[in-house]
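Task card 7
Instruction: Convert sequence to structure tokens.
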Amino acid sequence: MSEADSQPRAGRDEIWIEKYRPQTLDDVVGQETIVERLKSYVARNDLPHLMFSGQAGIGKTTSAQAIARELYGEDWKEHFLELNASDQRGIDVVRDRIKNFARSSFGGSNYRIIFLDEADSLTSDAQSALRRTMEEFSNNVRFILSCNYSSQIIDPIQSRCAVFRFSPLSDEAVEEQIRIIADEEDIEVTDDGIDALVYAASGDMRKAINGLQAAAVTGDVVDEEGVYAITSTARPEEINGMVTEALDGDFLAAKATLDELLTDEGIAGGDVIDQMHRSVWDFDLDDRAAVKLLDRIGEADYRITEGANERIQLEALLASLALDD
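Output:
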């Protein structure tokens, strides 16, 4: 046995999210209805322009690459241009890189694919230029646009695409994949560790796999404590306890819990907001009180997104709950 083979698998340098990325559409999990429609396009070799929308880590980029692999085989990279619009948001990326790729000569296929990730980050001028480019090169190029919010894409582009709305992955799909990878990598994972990874992922397979790898490197056993520490995620009971304290009128206790989450555990304010939102229906609230809480969470989330101080906004949120006591 070589020295490399004797090393624990978790200590190797492979990035598991790439190592276990699905290679074909059949390998994509949790999006069965979408996969069947995409497979029908590939079977006919008749691909329209496509738009994939949904949160991160649910299979949008993987599906685009799987389409290219199935259409072009081993030479798929020669016919597939991947760009991240959040890095190159201006009109020049459309005028230069996209048009140059569309104009370049190629053989063996009727069209090439341009995959534009985070297309909702493109400026309005760049989107207008992209629309014209889609028209100009419709005979030899197919576009696949990926975005978090399809509403940020102008209507002329949306009308030229078959739109696929990817849903967050189910807890069962995430858990199954975590167990498969843990078994393959010979990693011991406890049941509460699995539950913690599923909770931290919140439908994002990328986050789940990265969390599993990080936790496996830092300890012999992947358990609940290790997962929450490595993913900077608050335990559900911590969030529930904080909000319950505020609802009971004990603002100082709620603030102390918030301080512990933000300072001692290093959890981002936006993540605290997200976890509060996920826990709303776990509290013993009537419908009116739950709606009021959701309204205040939404307001705090908006303010933080717009650049307001997250600690002040979260403390103000807890204070407003305490004042309602």
